[in-house]
Structures are given as C-alpha cells and as structure tokens.
Specification:
CATH class of the largest domain: Alpha Beta
Number of strands: 21
Number of domains: 4
Shape: elongated
Structural class: alpha/beta
Low-confidence stretches: 1-13, 514-523
Radius of gyration: 48 Å
Amino acid sequence: MALKSNVVKTSKLETDNTIFDCIANLVIAVDHRGYITIFNHTCERLFGITAEQAIGKPVSQVIPYTGLIKVLKTGKAHIGRKFVLGNTLYIVNRTPIIKDNRIIGAIGVAQEITELHQLAAELEAVKDRKNSLESIFEHTNEGYISINREGYVNFINHAMAGLLKTTPEKVLNHHVTEIFPETKVHFFQIDGGSQQNKILKLADRNVLVSCFPVFKNGKVEGAISKVVYQDVDKLAALALKSESAWTKKNEIKSRYTLDDIIGASKAVSKLKEIVRRVARGPSTVLITGESGTGKELFAHALHAHSPRANKPFVKVNCAAIPENLLESELFGYREGAFTGSRKGGQIGKFELAHRGTIFLDEIGDMPLSMQAKVLRVLQEKEIERLGDRNTQKVDVRIIAATNRDLAGLIAEGRFRRDLYYRLNVVNINIPPLRERKEDIRDLVNHFIAKYNREFSLKISNLSRDVMELFERYNWPGNVRELENIIERAFNLVENDTIEMNHLPHYLLEFGGIQGKEQKTVNLNKSLPALLESVEKEAIVDALERTGGNKLQSAKLLGISRAWLYKKIKQYQIE
C-alpha cells in the first residue's frame, strides 16, 4: 500500500514538472532551505544549465543575487519586479509557499517584457505627442475641425467652436450637416481633394478656410478644415493699413506747391502760369536751368497741381547713384538677380511711382546704357526688373531736370537725341536769379522768416549795404546760394539785423570791402570767368568752415556731394 502511495506522489510531481515545462515563462521554486525544487525548460534555455544539474542545489549557486532567498526570510512577496538577463528585460513575481502557517518554500515566475516595454515607451511617446498637439490646437486662434469618412465630427478645438457659437461637447460625434448650413457643407466633402483659402460665412463673420483630406493606407479616412483667418473684413482693413504704412515709408508726396515758389517778377509769374496749364495733362516735362534755380521746386509743384497729386512723387538723382546700381534702383530686381541682392527682390522707382510722377533729376548725367532703358519706358510704358524676363506696365508721368547743355551733350555723343525729344515735350526753363533780381527782396524776407523759426531768433532785416550788395551781385549759385548766405548769417548775427561782417569773404571781395584794387581786378574779368572765380571761392570758403568735411560743405552750399566732388576736380581744389 505504501509503495502504491509513493508511485502516485512521483507521478504527480512529474506531471507538475511537465506542466511547468510547457510554460513559456521562467519558473523556479525552492524549498525552505533555498534548494531548487523546480527548474523548467525555459530556465534551462536561458541560464544554460539542465534541470538535473540545478534541482537539489542551493539557488544562490545557480542564480546569484536572486530575490527568492529574501522572500523565504521575510515571507513577503515581490510583485512586478524587473531584472535584465543579457539584452532581455523580464518582470518577475516571487511569492512564498506557505503551509500550516509555515514557509516551506518560494516560487518565482518571470515573463519577458522587452517588446512590451518598447511598445509602452512608444505608446507613452504617442500620448505625449497627442497631448502636445491637443495643447497646440486648444491654444491657437486658428479654428480646426476634423470629420471621419462618414461625415461625423471626431475633433474640434475651442477656436472653431467659438466661431460656430457652440462648445466642442455639443459638436463632437454629430454629423457635419447638423453644424454647418447646407450651402456650406459642400466645402467639407470627403472626396480626396483639397480646397485652400476659400471665404465662408460662419455665424456673423466672413472667414478664410482651407480643407485637406486625411489619408490612411492610401484611402481617404476623412477631412480636416482649418480657419486660416477668422475675420476677412478685418484682414482687408489691416492690408489697407499696411499698404498705407508702406506707402508712407516708401513713397514721397510732393511737398511744395506754386505758393512755395517765391517771387513776383514777370518771369516767375509767367512760369507759374505755365505750370498750372501743363500740370493738368500727362505730357513729359523737361525742366532746365542753372544749379540752384529751384528746378526741384517746380517739379513738386507740377505734381501737386496735377490729377496725380494724391499718388506717389518719387525723386531719383541720376548723378548721385553709381552707374552699376542705377538700373536696379530704377527698375528693381528679382531675388537672386545678383550677388548680395535682397531676399524677395526689390521694387524699383518706376514701379514705386505707378500712377504718380517720377522726377529724374540731373538727367544729363545719366549713363547712355540707362538712357536707352528710360526711352523704352517712355515709348512702351513698361519696365523689366533686373533678372526677370517678364515685363510689366507702368503708368508714370516723367519730369526730368538738368543744368547741363543737352544739345552740346548730344553733339558729343553723350546723350541720346531720341531720348531728348521724348523728354522735351514741354520745356520749362527757369531763369537764373541775376535775371530776376526784383525777386531778391521777397526771397530774403522768406528765408529770414524761415530761419527765425529754426533758430528761434527775431532777425528783422538786412542792412542797406547788404541789400545793395545783393542787388549788384550776379548770384552764380542762384537762389540756393542766397539761402545759404542767409543761413550763414544767422549763425553769426548778434542783433536783429544782418550786417556786412556776417557775409562770406568772397562776397565782401566782390563788393570791394577788402580793397578797391581787388574789386577792379574782379570787374575786369569776363562774366564767365568771374562766375567761376566766385564759385571756386565759395567752395573753398565752405570747405574751410567745415574743416574739409565734404558732406557738410555740400549741404552748406546747397548742392549734392557728387556735384561738389565734380567742382573740386574741375577747379583742382586740394
């Protein structure tokens, strides 16, 4: 009978071991002494030892640092503990085996979770990205709504819900036809196509919307729509405001009218009347006259009294811009047209003056290559940006000005005859100040009033000697020279009258204040020689007073820096 009992126990143990061997998990059991009693096939494979070699041996010899010994001692289970074997991650549960309130052993069951751990990490990363996207969608001012292929809403952010005057909870899982008016539903069709920047009226606003399909495995699974801008009317207003700001920054409005042209002489009155008549038409105007006569002033007045008065007035000094930059300045350029070009390209002066007026000052100094391009604008009314093959139409009135003898330049081959005739449709020749000396007193009073405001002084007049000198002087620098002399005097005057000692030395020499012999020498010169002498002395005086600063000297003389350099070279002034 006892033999039969032992056979039954042995058979039961073998059956238990067979069951454990069929389990993919690691199964190890120890008795109360810590000796291995169960060591399944998975343990054999992973630890490289057979069950026969392991069973009956202390577990610490077979698997060092196992937690089963601690479970035997404390009677407390280890649940969900992790350990690494090779490159594989396992999770193990260790529990004591208790019988009759005594710990008779312990068992450990471990499962490989490397792949599960990677999936969990990926899931966590996906959850993080999902939370980030949801946070972005919920905190953006742009409205988003997503629908599945049946047309039911599966996502909507608060911005879109606000536009629809509802809440996300009231919209989710509802069909799109329940949310949008029937006339708008076509925009959300699930057809695999996209629609961009369409204007839709949502509630009481015109909004700018784009719609895109959602694909999964090459099949359309739904669509997502985005409100690009919530208020198109406001956007239009901002665009107009931006355009206005750009205009103020880039466009020059005419600053002067005929009222700013001082003088009541017959010559000036006649010119004003010509300007009034010519301003009404579209014809090109060529303004000629010596330097300092006020050619730019007349150009401003022509624009101010024309139908283009509220449009741009753009000035280009053809002598001040280097030849290699003049073309891009006049006609603009595309991005990448040349090394160092601005990103996005640049608009040219002709485009800037569209529907307005462009004033080409010092046109006589324009290079021949550029003259041909300006001629094309006059003939074809179109321009071509540097680096661009496409042309574009421009509606621009051209006013040109020069103090050069264009006829002489044509004879020398330095100015195009055909351009001259295109420019010289209407010619306004401004007489020099020496030919309208009756305007000197009005000009003096005007400049005194101007600089009284700027200097916060109360100069009332010129001394009689100064006025007589002004009326005798030939004014090679014209009105600009007169203004500079008045401004210079304001820097020196000590009372309320401009006296002879406030004038530059070259003017005093002309008046004979520094010796009659000098006056006789000057008066014996021919008029052109005398004018050149006075001009040279004026430049020398300006350079002396500014310590040789060319920019300040040019400003003091009322001429451009380029023109000053030209005169310095002409008179060989060191």
